[in-house]
Structure formats: C-alpha cells, structure tokens
C-alpha cells in the first residue's frame, strides 16, 4: 500500500513547526510498511491541486503576511479542494489555513480577506490574541481522549459544524463557547500548533486510517508501541491542566 501526501505551502505556512506533521505521517506509515509519496505544493507549482492523486493534504498556519503571500495561488485551487473535501479526502488544516477554508475573515482593520468559501465559517480578528497551551477532550472517538497543542490566533472563529473537541484548558475557536476546531467528513481544521501530530499520535493514525479506508477499504491499522509518545503527551496534559 502507498499514500500520496500533499504538503501545501510548508515553506511559508509553518508556524511553530507545522511542517513536522508530514514527518510524523511518513514515519508512522513506514513503521507499518506503507509507502509514502510526498508532494510539496508551493506557489511555484504550475499544475493545480489534483484530488484524484491525493490521499492526505497537510496545510500549516502562518502569519497574516504569510497567508497573504499564498492567498492568490491557494484561492485558485478552490474547486479542486472542494471536490476533494466532498469526496471524503483527508485534510488537516492548521490555524490560518483553517480560517481560509471558511466563508469570511475580517482582519483587525476591518478588511474582508478572500477565503475559499468551502465552509460556512466566519472568523473575526478582535481584541487580544488567544495564546497559550491548550488541551481538548476530543469529539471524534480518539483514544486517548485528550489532544494537546499550542494556540496563537487573533481570529475568533464561529460556525455550526461538529467541532474537534471540548476545551479543557485554553481558548479554542473563539474563547467563548469552549469548543475547538471543525470536523466535516475527513476534513479537520484546528488551531493546534506544536506541531500537533507528534504530540497526538492518535490523531495522526486517524488521518492515516481514513486515507487507507478511502483508497483501499482498510478498516484498521496495526497498533504501534507509543509508550514514549504517550508519556510525553500525558506530561503535557498534566502540566497544562494542573
């Protein structure tokens, strides 16, 4: 078996080491004997995003300036990304890229930033940025149930979709409703940086399993010895919630 992973704009959208997510997907696949082909999708990529030849999409977060640098190229991929998402393609979008999948983003100066408009999601940059470590209790059946990360976002996000988890410590989507992220089919948007997958290998395995299920009809994947990873995860949870 093999998976095709598209790593979008990682040379620019790499806040707090988000590009580490692709390394975790690759390594956890290789430990299971699954080959991984990684395509770095950049502004210089002359062809459009190809939903037919993609199994996992990873997009990190970036500063407002970074997002503006990729915006034109990213928006040109809208119809291809929408087709991919609706066909249950696997996506992990972090922070700024999570916001750009929405319908509306209003920056601190009141300007409307162009978005992909794939989801009915509004983000408004208001007041003090939401910064710090964060712990969730996930809503998607992962075990262990907690997810940990680091958030830093001026945008407050509002939507009616399923969320990734309930905030146990930190701020989440908007600092008001104690919910974090967005889940739609096999799309996950979240504010968790870190990078998020090394801190939460159970989430990485969910992405891998969903991709294999779509491509090969696989219903389960081999368990790995995550004793060390779990100790690190638990240490973070205890430190943040303490």
Walkthrough of the structure:
By secondary structure, the chain is an alpha/beta fold. The protein is built from seven helices and twelve strands. It has helices spanning 20-30, 64-75, 78-86, 96-100, 196-199, 201-216, 227-241, and strands at residues 2-8, 35-41, 56-59, 90-94, 104-106, 112-113, 122-138, 146-158, 165-169, 179-180, 182-184, 187-190. The protein has a six-stranded mixed sheet. β1, α1 (20-30) and β2 form a beta-alpha-beta unit. α1 (20-30) packs across α6 (201-216). It is globular and about 50 Å long. The N and C termini lie far apart (43 Å). The mean pLDDT is 95.
Distinctive features:
242 residues, alpha/beta, 6-stranded mixed beta sheet, 30% helix
> Beta-strand percentage?
25-35%
* Anisotropy-based shape: globular
Rg over alpha carbons? 17 Å
Along the chain, the helix and strand elements come as EHEEHHEHEEEEEEEEHHH
Give the helix/strand layout.
Blueprint: E1 2-8, H1 20-30, E2 35-41, E3 56-59, H2 64-75, H3 78-86, E4 90-94, H4 96-100, E5 104-106, E6 112-113, E7 122-138, E8 146-158, E9 165-169, E10 179-180, E11 182-184, E12 187-190, H5 196-199, H6 201-216, H7 227-241
Parallel strand pairs: 1-2, 1-3, 3-4, 4-12, 5-7
Antiparallel strand pairs: 5-6, 7-8, 7-9, 9-10, 11-12
Helix pairs in contact: 1-6
């Amino acid at each position: 078996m093999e998976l095709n992973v598209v790593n979008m704009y990682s040379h620019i959208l790499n806040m707090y080491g988000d590009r580490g997510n692709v390394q975790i997907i690759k390594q956890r696949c290789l430990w299971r004997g699954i080959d991984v082909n990684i395509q770095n999708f950049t502004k210089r990529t002359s062809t459009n995003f190809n939903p037919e030849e993609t199994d996992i999409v990873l997009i990190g977060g970036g500063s407002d300036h970074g997002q503006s640098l990729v915006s034109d190229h990213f928006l040109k991929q809208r119809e291809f990304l929408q087709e991919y998402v609706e066909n249950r393609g696997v996506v992990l979008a972090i922070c700024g890229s999570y916001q750009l999948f929405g319908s509306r983003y209003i920056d601190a100066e009141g300007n409307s930033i162009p978005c992909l408009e794939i989801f009915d999601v509004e983000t408004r940059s208001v007041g003090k940025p939401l910064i710090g470590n964060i712990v969730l209790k996930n809503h998607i059946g992962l075990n262990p149930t907690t997810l940990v990360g680091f958030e830093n976002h001026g945008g407050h996000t509002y939507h009616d979709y399923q969320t990734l988890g309930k905030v146990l410590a930190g701020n989440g989507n908007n600092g008001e409703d104690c919910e974090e992220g967005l889940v739609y089919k096999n799309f996950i948007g979240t504010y968790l940086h870190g990078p998020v997958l090394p801190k939460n290998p159970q989430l990485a395995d969910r992405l891998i399993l969903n991709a294999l299920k779509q491509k090969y009809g696989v219903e389960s994947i081999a368990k790995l010895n995550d004793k060390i990873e779990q100790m690190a995860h638990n240490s973070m949870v205890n430190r943040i919630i303490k």
